[in-house]
């Protein structure tokens, strides 16, 4: 099942263009940092050129009648130059570390910005599991950064190779030509290997994504596995996925290691050819001992070029895979969106400035929906030609049988479904992008299955808001007594997706998070799914009690909420029937 090269040379050229164009755009985000790193690494890689000349001077003086003092002077200069080279290396590594982190951070910030604040829903852009999303943010951004990294080295390698060839050719052109031949052969082999490296990287990334995705699903379903007695099956599946990943990773790593070993092989072949060619000339006195030392030192310089070229070729092809995977997370799938200069924003709060004062609600306004039609994709059910009005101070309840389109109506209204037609207006103004407009403080949404961050409870509720917003939100969400009963109170870490809380506590924590933003309109999708009747009655009493004046759009079947409703909207088969 060895993956064949996909697309051959044409695809490799396309990968090269896309990767280099994207890497160039990333470089231009902070060109000064890259320029400084480039100067230092080029200087480091070209240092062997003057060092070789100094070595030649030392060997020539040892074999001549030059004074001992002269030899020691040249040796001191050689030692000083080597010390300067490694001092430069330390400086280059220090400066490079900051640039390396920046090359990772810019794509990650842009992808987060696109997912949080770009128009339209994100469901079609996100991969099927959180593990796969993490793989893209972690591994694929690193593949792109590696292209810029090796670009620093190959610049110095090319310059030092050109200088070395020029100096060696001035001494013995024939020998220089022969020892360059393995370098050319290694470059050709690296080019031939390129499409295969790309295919192996695709297979490795896909296999790794399957493992991380399965782990994410497994951690979220431990109770289901235990209740079903499926421990052995889960472990077997995990072993099978890891076996596939092992095979794919071996190919990927073997290809990369093969490319990187070209330098060592080329150097050994070059040294052997050099010795065969210059030994007779040395015996005839046509070359000095210093010339032999210079050839020997520069052979290693020439041998480094195939290694860097091969590594760049591998990273470019691997980078092409990564750029495609990263671009899929953006709105239009354009790689330019991955490496655009990041816009200052607080990702915890979406577009606009992060709240630094007490949250203030937006002015009340009527939400109007006309002719709204939406679905989840071809062949899926949704809603058809629905009209809806939610006026300030009203409680509007959506009801209907399972699968009638209640959740779809909420999500389409809030801009969370991609396939949508009709108009949505706020305060009489038509909204082009409800997904970006109908957010706090205008609208806060509590989904049927809320997601909580694995943070202390106080942080997963506030998400950056000042703590002054917390007490009232906890009280209205009927969470105050629960917090008091927790050993660590508000500092209790809720775990991934709130697994350390009960289902009802998760829903009420999500409700508190929405209420802390003081929305003009509260949208709630079926709180009753995890709450007991008494708790839900107290919650709605607090939210909708006398004088509350709160506007709400709610999905529920509970009679006590239906009796309070100003408007009841009934859906069947995606259409409004009442």
Q: So how many helices?
A: 18
The biggest sheet, with number of strands, parallel, antiparallel or mixed sense and barrel status, is: 6 strands, mixed
Instruction: Determine the N-to-C terminus distance.
Output: 58 Å
Strand order of the largest sheet: 6-7-8-3-9-10
The count of β-strands is 10
| Gyration radius over CA | 33 Å
Structural class: alpha/beta
Label the overall shape. elongated
Taken as a percent bin, the fraction of beta residues is 5-15%
Helix content: 55-70%
Elements, N to C (H/E)? HHHHHHHHHHEEEHEEHEHHHHEHEHEE
Low-confidence stretches: 1-7, 344-358
SSE layout:
Blueprint: H1 8-27, H2 31-46, H3 48-62, H4 68-117, H5 130-171, H6 173-219, H7 222-228, H8 231-260, H9 262-283, H10 289-327, E1 367-375, E2 382-390, E3 395-399, H11 406-413, E4 419-426, E5 429-430, H12 434-437, E6 443-446, H13 457-462, H14 470-476, H15 480-485, H16 503-515, E7 521-525, H17 533-544, E8 551-555, H18 559-564, E9 567-572, E10 575-576
Parallel strand pairs: 3-8, 3-9, 6-7, 7-8
Antiparallel strand pairs: 1-2, 1-4, 4-5, 9-10
Helix pairs in contact: 1-5, 1-10, 2-4, 2-5, 3-4, 3-10, 4-5, 5-6, 5-10, 6-8, 6-9, 6-10, 8-10, 9-10, 14-16
């Amino acid at each position: 099942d060895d993956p064949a090269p996909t697309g051959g040379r044409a695809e490799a050229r396309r990968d090269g263009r896309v990767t280099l164009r994207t890497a160039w755009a990333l470089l231009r985000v902070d060109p000064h940092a890259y320029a400084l790193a480039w100067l230092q690494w080029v200087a480091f890689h070209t240092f062997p050129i003057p060092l070789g000349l100094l070595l030649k001077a030392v060997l020539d003086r040892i074999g001549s009648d030059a004074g001992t003092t002269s030899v020691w002077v040249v040796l001191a200069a050689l030692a000083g130059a080597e010390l300067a080279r490694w001092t430069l290396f330390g400086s280059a590594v220090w400066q490079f570390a900051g640039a390396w982190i920046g090359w990772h951070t810019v794509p990650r910030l842009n992808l987060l910005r696109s997912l949080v604040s770009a128009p339209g829903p994100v469901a079609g852009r996100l991969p099927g599991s959180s593990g796969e999303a993490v793989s893209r943010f972690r591994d694929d951004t690193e593949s792109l950064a590696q292209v810029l990294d090796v670009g620093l080295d190959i610049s110095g390698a090319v310059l030092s190779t050109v200088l070395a060839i020029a100096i060696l050719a001035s001494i013995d052109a024939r020998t220089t030509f022969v020892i360059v031949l393995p370098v050319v052969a290694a470059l050709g082999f690296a080019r031939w290997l390129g499409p295969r490296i790309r295919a192996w990287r695709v297979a490795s990334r896909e296999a790794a994504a399957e493992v991380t995705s399965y782990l994410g699903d497994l951690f979220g379903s431990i109770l289901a596995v235990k209740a079903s007695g499926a421990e052995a099956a889960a472990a077997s599946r995990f072993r099978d996925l890891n076996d596939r990943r092992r095979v794919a990773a071996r190919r990927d790593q073997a290809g990369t290691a093969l490319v990187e070993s070209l330098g060592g092989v080329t150097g050994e072949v070059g040294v052997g050819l050099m010795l065969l060619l210059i030994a007779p000339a040395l015996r005839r006195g046509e070359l000095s001992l210093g010339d032999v030392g210079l050839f020997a030192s520069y052979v290693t310089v020439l041998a480094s070029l195939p290694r860097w070229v091969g590594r760049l070729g591998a990273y470019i092809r691997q980078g092409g895979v990564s750029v495609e995977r990263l671009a899929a997370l953006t709105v239009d799938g354009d790689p330019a969106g991955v490496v655009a200069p990041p816009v200052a924003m607080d990702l915890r709060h979406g577009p606009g400035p992060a709240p630094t004062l007490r949250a203030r609600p937006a002015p009340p306004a009527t939400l109007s929906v006309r002719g709204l039609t939406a679905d989840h994709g071809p062949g899926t059910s949704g809603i058809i030609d629905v009209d809806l009005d939610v006026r300030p101070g009203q409680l509007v309840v959506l009801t209907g049988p399972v699968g009638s389109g209640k959740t779809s109506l909420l999500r389409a209204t809030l801009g969370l479904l991609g396939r949508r037609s009709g108009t949505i207006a706020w305060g009489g103004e038509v909204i082009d992008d409800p997904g970006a407009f109908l957010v706090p403080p205008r609208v806060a949404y509590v989904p049927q299955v809320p997601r909580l961050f694995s943070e202390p409870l106080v942080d997963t509720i506030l998400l950056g808001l000042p703590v002054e917003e917390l007490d009232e939100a906890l009280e209205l969400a009927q969470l105050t007594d629960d917090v008091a009963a927790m050993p660590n109170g508000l500092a209790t870490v809720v775990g991934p997706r709130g697994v350390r809380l009960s289902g009802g506590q998760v829903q009420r924590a999500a409700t508190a998070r929405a209420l802390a933003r003081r929305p003009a309109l509260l949208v709630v999708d079926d709180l009753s799914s995890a709450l007991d009747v008494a708790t839900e009655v107290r919650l709605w009493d607090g939210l909708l009690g006398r004088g509350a004046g709160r506007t709400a759009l709610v999905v529920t079947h509970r009679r006590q909420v239906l009796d309070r409703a100003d408007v009841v909207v009934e859906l069947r088969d995606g259409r409004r029937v009442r």
